[in-house]
Amino acid sequence: MIEAPMMEVCSYLNTSAFIHRMIEAEKPHLIVFTGDDIFGFDATNAAASMNAAFEPAVSSNIPWAAVLGNHDQESTLSREGVMKHIVQMKHTLSQLNPPEFEDIDGFGNYNLEVSGAEGSSLHNKSVLNLYFLDSGDYSTVSTIFGYGWIKPSQQYWFQRTSKKLRKAYIKNPDGQKLVAPGLAYFNIPLPEFKVQWEYKVQRP
Known about the structure:
Blueprint: H1 6-9, H2 12-26, E1 31-34, H3 46-60, E2 64-67, H4 79-87, E3 110-115, E4 126-132, H5 152-170, E5 182-185, H6 191-202
Parallel strand pairs: 1-2, 4-5
Antiparallel strand pairs: 3-4
């Protein structure tokens, strides 16, 4: 069997078609894009490319959210410009940044709260907390090579926000004993993933 070159079988067209099929099959309540939404070097118009990339979610009328990857700003818009375009698109829940944290690093740091079922005792509580973080693009430190990372200002915002949500979850009325679960979405993996991967590879 002769394998076709990767670029001939993986394009934005058949990727979009695949996302359409996946949305139709799964019927999700929320769609999340975790960065590198466009390949900036090949995009001559960042806004048009993003419109095409997010079209499956927009046309589905399903709420969706996105974070930035390390390639999204390599076209005609800055990272801030890319995120500003995303937040004004239809059906998106994406946010530019938390308004109460003006000095936070990056763009697209925000959280979403998933409330309990309507009519239940948890209707006014967040039973699932979703955190979205800009993990940057590339290192700006001369002695550190490679990709960027989540900065202390973002960690501070995350800790403050999660602590506030934990307090609200256990507070009466209908205070809960356990902590509500949470998920974090960002593009560049934490260094611990590499350490764990190497550890598993080296061990039988």
